[in-house]
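Most newcomers find our protein records easier to grasp once they have seen one. A learned vocabulary of local backbone shapes supplies the integers on the structure line. An example says more than a description, so a record of this kind follows:
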Amino acid sequence: MVLKKFSALNKLLLFLIFALIICGIYCIYSATWMRETHFVKSQICWLSLTIPLFFVFAFTDYRWIRLGAIPLYGMGLLGLILVLVLGVKVYGARSWLNLGFCHFQPSELAIIGGIMVLALYLSNSDQRHPFIRIVTCGALMGVPCLLILVQPNLGGSIVWFPIFFAMLYAANVPARYLLTILLLGVAFTPLMVNFGMKPYQRDRITVFLDPSLDPQGAGWNINQSLNAIGSGGFFGKGFKAPNTLNELGYLPSTIVHNDFIFSVLGEQHGFIGGVILIVLFALLIVTGLFIAAHASDRLGRLLAVGITFLFFTHTFMNIGMTIGVTPITGLPLPLISYGGSFMLIAMMSLGLLQSIWIHRKLVY
């Protein structure tokens, strides 16, 4: 049975996953070789744990979430509550739990649990009025989103909204309802910026709109990121090129291997390197939507859409913030950025995506 399921894997998705993982190890090494080497070793250790987990999830029928979604969602909420009390404060946000052997970010667990619960609810709520479905989904999303925002972790809360809209759209909620929600969100954005954000978060929005306003302060990271990518030109400066902005410390050394890893790639390998990586992510997202379109049931389709938009949002926001298209939010680049907790959730999610493909001919 396992061999049969192995042969049924979506080969393109499998190739893209491992191609991005290899790119990730290379990029982490490129970003840190002149200062630290343990990041690569740590990332490989996490991969040795999460790659088997990927195959476990891939070969297990995804319909287990009918029993596991609510407990996983509850664990995510519990983690978000615990992090507010016992969490470790990093860069102004209390977002991490110290488990002794590692630091874990509960918001990552909450979001995959949230996607499962939303998929489960929307797949069984066709007969209910669209307004009831939206309010229920809004509550399921709103509770963890609010807890993440309180940390404060603006990036972690923003991720929920594209996923929310995509899953509602895939569940055939009428477009007029979605448009109304979107317009209301736009209308309330100024209130959110002025009264719902910390000063440093408002500064990020300000320098996003005009990076020249505070070039030595809040605008430093984005300006140096743009300088690094721009200096790479078409072909880049090359691997371990001397006197790069990263090597000289202009890119923030504490997070360059995470938030600004695309800046390192752009400086070393230029436009060509950036395009290749973006194409790999684009193929991953298109493959996810293809799997969603060929899922055997509504649960699989909605789950695949949620997971695909999780990767799309992280990719768009991370690359976007390094090139000045989006504000700096601190979201990792999937499979590329250094970090164990998101790698764990990413491989679980991709395993579920493979499971939807493998089990698409089985309908219970």
